[in-house]
Specification:
It is a single chain. This protein has helices spanning about 20-30, 70-80, 110-130, 145-150, 150-155, 160-175, 185-195, 200, 220-225, 285-295, 310-315, 350-360, 360-375, 410-415, 440-460; strands at about 10-15, 35, 50-55, 55-60, 65, 85, 90-95, 100-105, 210-215, 235, 240-245, 250-255, 260-270, 280, 295-300, 300-310, 320-325, 330-335, 345-350, 385-390, 405, 425-430. Strands 1, 2, 10, 11, 12, 13, 14 and 22 form an 8-stranded mixed β-sheet that branches. Strands 8-7-17-18-19-16-20 form a 7-stranded mixed β-sheet. The protein has a 3-stranded antiparallel β-sheet with strand order 5-9-6, covered by helices on one side. By secondary structure, the chain is of the alpha/beta class. It is globular and about 65 Å long. The protein folds into 3 domains: about 10-45 and about 220-285 and about 420-460, FAD/NAD(P)-binding domain, CATH 3.50.50; about 85-90 and about 205-215 and about 300-395, Polyamine Oxidase, Chain A, domain 2; about 110-200, Guanine Nucleotide Dissociation Inhibitor, domain 1. Helix 1 (about 20-30) runs parallel beside helix 15 (about 440-460) and helix 3 crosses helix 7 (about 185-195). The termini are close together. It has 15 helices and 22 strands. Bound molecules: flavin-adenine dinucleotide.
């Protein structure tokens, strides 16, 4: 490469989540010499599978894939990880305002007024999202206004009723790990557009929650890492600094064996965007590039799993899917293994609900969540054989989940700074993807895009 000095690698990738692994794999497939440096002692980042033994597992982070997520489906095929459908036979439950309403199909029995209101909300959110190009939301009609208001403001301005507003808030706490008052309306519309529409975003059958990965989602990440040359993924090596000089980039960090240094022609930083600010860049990033991390912040999401000897709710005619405002676990799903050799319920607590759990001791958290499960599925749900929690905000190398969110003003300010290369530094991470941002699929797309940017230089 013209002007380059001697380096150890064509590119070093920071982060072995799906975006970093996809970047490294694309570069390796194209014949480039690449290394991945990862802070944790495992690959997968916000995807982590916990083995329960006896053929059962739980996905502590990313879990599902949907038909519009072609890149993650292709990666699962490449690494021979099978898919199976999310269990969806029976009735879902809606638990709002102290009233339990089991329902079949997609329409809960909430009365005609709230039902019409929900229809109106879906229609206008869908229409508004169609006017936003997720590749450049800052150019949407009314972008400045939409980025100046929150989702809560928008709901109030359009006079939506209590039921529709509550339902969207519950769904939003799991989708973004944030409250409607915390996120920019432009960000919300861009996210919906990036997902392929509201139905793709929220639905189980035919939507983003359609399939689970056989053996857990982390198996795909492990397959990706194993396809790289031996020794190219370096675990427990958090990057502290990135220095760009004429012709090369030098990365330094403190690993388990002391200080290390690597030199590459280019670097791909594949982190949730707010975590970029933990790395010292020399020279400092331009204000545009720094904007990619400064205004955004991580959502807050906790997953709680209760493990039973069987999925007993199925016998009672329930899918295990519920929306509730009566407990911190706003959304529940059946995540039992495909052979139903045991029963597993997961509850998602996002935004304020996650903060409620954070400020409660371990016994209290368990009581609150299991109380919520028992309210939905009966007393048997209060007595599981096993219990696992994962608070993503407490994870040092994620600092939250499921995604980084844009509070009002952040998107108009950062604009393309989130992913525009800064000299020899390229940016990946699901947040930088135009399509399927926030999902494993978006992470893979972002890594492949960043690798293509690097290859455009290395092959010129
Ligand atoms: C609870 C939860 C549920 C989710 N559910 C789904 C779902 O069902 N379906 C779906 O598609 N998506 C889901 N997601 C989102 C999905 O997991 C993410 O979009 C995706 O995994 C992000 O990948 P990434 O590579 O962009 O980032 P990450 O996975 O965050 O990878 C970044 C990596 O960088 C490492 N790192 C951080 N700082 C440094 C440093 N200084 N030096 C070196 N390494 C560093 C981290 O350890 C991490 O491994 C969920 C996420 C969570 C948390």
């Amino acid at each position: 490469m013209a002007g380059d000095i001697s380096t150890d690698y064509d590119a070093v990738v920071v982060g072995a989540g799906f975006s970093g692994l996809a970047a490294a794999l694309s570069l390796h497939d194209a014949g480039a010499k690449v290394a991945v440096v990862e802070a944790r002692d495992r690959v997968g980042g916000r995807v982590e599978t916990h083995d329960l033994g006896g053929g059962a597992w739980i996905d502590l982070g990313g879990t599902w894939a949907g038909p519009m997520q072609e890149r993650v489906l292709a990666m699962a095929r490449r690494f021979d990880v099978g898919l199976f459908e999310q269990y969806a036979e029976g009735k879902n439950v809606l638990d709002l305002g102290g009233k339990l309403r089991p329902y079949s199909g997609t329409i809960p029995r909430v009365g005609l007024g709230p039902l019409l209101d929900m229809g109106r909300l879906q229609l206008s959110l869908g229409r508004a999202a169609k006017r936003v190009d997720p590749d450049q939301p800052w150019n949407a009609p009314n972008a400045e206004y939409l980025d100046a208001i929150t989702l809560a403001d928008w709901l109030r301005n359009h006079h939506y009723g209590e039921v529709a507003t509550a339902l969207l808030a519950i769904a939003g706490r799991t989708t973004w790990g944030a409250e409607p008052r915390e996120i920019s309306m432009l960000y919300v519309l861009s996210y919906i557009a990036s997902s392929g529409g509201l139905a793709a975003l929220l639905d189980t059958e035919g939507g983003n929650q359609h399939w689970r990965f056989q053996g857990g989602a982390a198996r795909v990440a492990e397959g990706m890492a194993a396809a790289l040359p031996d020794g190219s993924v370096r675990l427990e090596q958090p990057v502290d600094s990135i220095t760009t000089e004429a012709g090369a980039v030098t990365l330094t960090g403190q690993g388990s064996d002391g200080t290390w240094e690597l030199r590459a022609s280019r670097v791909i930083v594949a982190l949730p965007s707010p975590l970029r600010s933990r790395i010292t860049f020399n020279p400092s990033l331009s204000p545009t590039a720094a904007a990619g991390s400064s205004g955004w912040r991580m959502g807050n999401l906790t997953k709680c799993f209760a493990i039973y000897d069987e999925p007993f709710w199925r016998k009672d005619g329930f899918t295990g899917e519920a929306l509730t405002d009566a407990a911190p676990n706003g959304l529940t799903f059946d995540v039992s293994p495909p052979d139903a050799s045991c029963g597993i319920l997961v509850g998602f607590a996002g935004g304020d609900d996650a903060r409620t759990l954070e400020s409660t001791d371990a016994a209290g958290r368990r009581e609150l969540v299991l109380g919520g499960f028992a309210r939905l599925y009966g007393e048997r749900a209060a007595k599981p054989e096993g219990w696992v929690e994962r608070a993503w905000a407490a994870q040092e190398w994620s600092a939250g989940g499921p995604v980084a969110v844009a509070p009002p003003g952040a998107l108009m300010f950062s604009q393309n700074g989130l992913r525009e290369p800064a000299d020899r530094i390229h940016w990946a991470g699901t947040e930088t993807s135009a399509l399927r941002a926030g999902f494993i699929d978006g992470a893979i797309r972002s890594g492949e895009r960043a690798a293509a940017e690097v290859l455009a230089f290395t092959q010129s």
